[in-house]
Amino acid sequence: MFRELTPLETYEELSQKADAVLIDCRAPAEWHFTGTPDLSQIGKKPFLAAISDEPGRPNPEFLDQVKTVVDPAAPVYIICRVGGRSANACRMLAAEGYNSLVNVIEGFEGRGDENGHRNNVEGWKFHGLPWTQI
């Protein structure tokens, strides 16, 4: 139904595939407080579409937001904080006919370390991939 790639593998594929799209499905507060992937070096922008507005409250417009912008035939990579919401988004989009889906495991921030701090063990930021504060 969908593949899973690390952030480094994802960035490499996004760089190589002209029609590839990265969807950041985290909540708006996360985009503002922790930043978003910066794809400007490869001539792209991430598409920001929250799968939930806040924890436990799904965004009923998520699918419509994606379908109006992202071609179902395009390679679609989906990232969240750790990889759970993005896996759910992959399942939802697969049910809508998207057939080239990738869940970005580790996500943007990764899981917490022994102290609960993120960005220290895995994730987009941990691997030194470009990101920006919005």
Protein architecture, described:
There is one protein chain. Helix 4 links the parallel strand 7 and strand 8 (about 100-105). This protein has four helices and nine strands; from the N terminus they run E-H-E-H-E-E-E-E-H-E-H-E-E. With about 130 residues, it is α/β, with parallel strands linked by helices. The protein is globular, with a radius of gyration of 14 Å. It has a five-stranded parallel β-sheet with strand order 1-8-7-2-4. A two-stranded antiparallel sheet has the order 3-9. The mean pLDDT is about 95. About 30% of the residues lie in helices and about 20% in strands.
Specify the structural class. alpha/beta
- Termini separation: 32 Å
* Tally of DSSP β-strands: 9
Number of helices: 4
Task: Report Rg.
Answer: 14 Å
- Give the helices and strands as they follow along the chain: EHEHEEEEHEHEE
Helix content: 25-40%
Keywords summarizing the entry:
5-stranded parallel sheet; two-stranded antiparallel sheet; 4 helices; 28% helix
Summarize the structure in short:
By secondary structure, the protein is of the alpha/beta class. 28% of the residues lie in helices and 19% in strands.
Topology, element by element:
Blueprint: E1 3-5, H1 7-16, E2 21-24, H2 28-34, E3 36-37, E4 47-48, E5 52-54, E6 57-58, H3 62-69, E7 76-79, H4 84-95, E8 101-104, E9 131-132
Parallel strand pairs: 1-8, 2-4, 2-7, 7-8
Antiparallel strand pairs: 3-9, 5-6
